[in-house]
Amino acid sequence: MAEIKGNGVAIVTPFSENGSINWESLEALLDHVLKGGVDFIVVLGTTGESPTLSKSEKSEFFDFVDRWVAGRVPLVAGIGGNNTISVAEQMVAFKNKGYSAILSVTPYYNKPSQKGLIEHYKYLADRSPLPIILYNVPGRTGVNMLPETVRELAEHRNIIGIKEAAGSVEQVMKLKRILPDDFLIFSGDDMLNLPYTMLGIDGYISVLSNVVPNAVSRIFTLVNEGKLSEASKIHYDLMPLIRLLFAEGNPAGGKCALSHLGIVKNVLRLPLVPVSQELSDKLKQELDSLREKGYLK
Predict the structure, then answer these.
(1) Does 297 fall in a domain?
(2) Is residue 170 part of a domain?
(3) What gap in Å lies between CA 25 and CA 7, rounded to an integer?
(4) What is the CATH number of the domain that holds 29?
(5) Residue 215: what are its φ and ψ, rounded to 5°?
(6) I want to staple 25 with a disulfide (CB 3.0 to 4.6 A). Which of 122, 166, 236, 264 is the partner?
(7) Digit-coded pLDDT (tens) for 7-53
């Protein structure tokens, strides 16, 4: 799975005013991130509001992205949940051959023990037709998958990596220290992309890359070329935008920013709602500032 490295974008799901999937906007978004140089695309992760899509909508969405991207970059499918058997059934039923791996979030609300997490992922990995990337995001799920747990899961041949979004540099350092060299580690925290890259991670699964994909890709490339000063300058320039994108929750901030860029409409499905007018105005101002600095056309 060496191809799944670098700047990956967790794309949002564009909706029309009537709440249906907006396929024209999805084309525009895919065109935007591909022209921005993303290395792979995560489809229907939690940033894509996947819990609010029906089974048929998800199937159509997966197929549409595959057809549009047409092999230009690898695709990762988001398939996760808190019902282990149901998630496994979804994985077994996933027949789209255009995808390279599955990203699967830790069970939310149930708050399983570390042993429960191990058994959950082993059950999935034994049945999944594609390699699995673990997704640790305790701020949303209520449980933190510890490095020792990840190390045990890394022994399974069908578990190849982790999207780490615990917000802890120390946790990433421990993962780097105890995991096999070929086990992939992706940043799930855009604010920490820079320090994580300096620690030697394999890439990002980024919300920010929906908006400024080229700039995020440059950070990864520059750090790996040893150009830390140039990479830091870009990261520091993007920090205000990152704060605003998450100020009232994800993907509300990202969709608002993309609407200011004319790429998608500022529409979400309940229980999510658009950001406040105050935050929308701040996002527009920050995007204008980044445009002046050359990050946006």
Answers:
(1) no
(2) yes
(3) 22
(4) 3.20.20.70
(5) -65, -40
(6) 264
(7) 999 999 999 999 999 999 999 999 999 999 999 999 999 999 999 99
Amino acid at 235: H
DSSP, res 263:
S
Relative to beta strand 159-164, strand 101-105 is: unpaired
> What is the Cα–Cα distance from 291 to 283, expressed in whole angstroms?
12
pTM higher than the cut 0.90: yes
For residue 22, give the nearest of 206, 205, 258, 245 by alpha carbon.
Answer: 258
State the amino acid at position 267 in one-letter form: V
- Domain containing 204 equals 6-227
Peptide bond into 271 cis (omega under 30): yes
Residue 251 lies in a domain: no
Tracing tokens 């058994």 back to the chain, one arrives at 119
Each residue of 240-257: pLDDT tens digit? 999 999 999 999 999 999
Tokens of 246: 């998450």
Domain count, the chain: 1
Residue 190, class by beta-carbon neighbours within 10 Å (0-12 exposed, 13-18 middle, 19+ buried)? Answer: buried
Amino acid letter, 19: G
Q: Which of the residues are catalytic?
A: 135, 163
CB neighbours (10 Å) of residue 49? 19
How many other CB atoms are there within 10 angstroms of residue 236's CB atom? 10
